[in-house]
Amino acid sequence: MKAKVKKLLFIIPLSACAILGIFFMYISSEGFARKHLIPVLEEKTQFTIESDSIDISLLKGEVTLKKVSAHSGPNTIEVSDLTIKVDLLACINQNFKVHTISLNEAKINLTFDATGKIKSDPNKIKTISIPKKSTNK
Questions:
Q1: Could you give the CA distance from residue 95 to residue 13 in angstroms, rounded to a whole number?
Q2: Rg for the chain (alpha carbons), in Å?
Q3: Nearest Cα residue to 37 out of 54, 17, 15
Q4: Rounded to an integer, what distance in angstroms lies between the CA atom of residue 48 and that of residue 71?
Q5: Averaged confidence pLDDT in the chain
Q6: Number of helices (H), then strands (E), in the chain
Q7: What CA–CA distances, in Å, run from 103 to 64, 68, 93, 125?
Q8: Distance (Å) of CA 29 to CA 17, 37, 117, 133
Q9: What is the pLDDT of residue 126?
Q10: I need a surface site. Which of 29, 44, 79, 135 has the fewest CB within 10 A?
Q11: Which of 8-12, 29-33, 87-91 has the lowest average pLDDT?
């Protein structure tokens, strides 16, 4: 083969690997999580969320937030570690499938109104409805 063709066959895959490496480094960064993941969590939970640090494991499909403080109106949640395991392939299509959520050392304070609904921040939504499970045996 010509020298130019060999050079191209070497440079193109190497460049693709470098670009993919930079892409995965960005996706696993704390800046990416603060810019893209935290707003989704805030929208889905209707809580304002603050965290000291965020760790993302792409291989495990796991996001861990350390020293989390969340609030919505009179409701507050403080957690030492919040770990969320998700289906990564579904997240690419913005179909968020959560497998597990674990809270370590959690302090949860919720305020309910007279109808049994959770009070929340009036700037976000009026109330959050939690369906009651029947205990018929």
A1: 31
A2: 21
A3: 54
A4: 5
A5: 78
A6: 4, 6
A7: 10, 10, 26, 24
A8: 18, 11, 37, 39
A9: 46
A10: 135
A11: 87-91
Report how far residue 96's alpha carbon sits from residue 36's, in angstroms, rounded to the nearest whole number: 13
Which residues touch 71 (CB under 8 Å, ≥6 apart)?
Answer: 47, 48, 77, 121
DSSP 116: S
- Residue 85 scores a pLDDT above 60: yes
**d(C-alpha 17, C-alpha 11), whole Å:** 10
Residue 131's Cα: distance from chain center in Å?
A: 24
How far apart are the C-alpha atoms of 51 and 86, rounded to whole Å?
19
d(CA 133, CA 125): 23
- Residue 130: pLDDT over 60: no
- pLDDT beyond 50 at 61: yes
Minimal CA–CA distance to 34: which of 53, 6, 8?
53
**Tokens in use for 49?**
């969320």
Asked if pLDDT for residue 36 goes beyond 90, the answer is: no
Given a cut of 60, whether residue 79 has pLDDT beyond it is yes
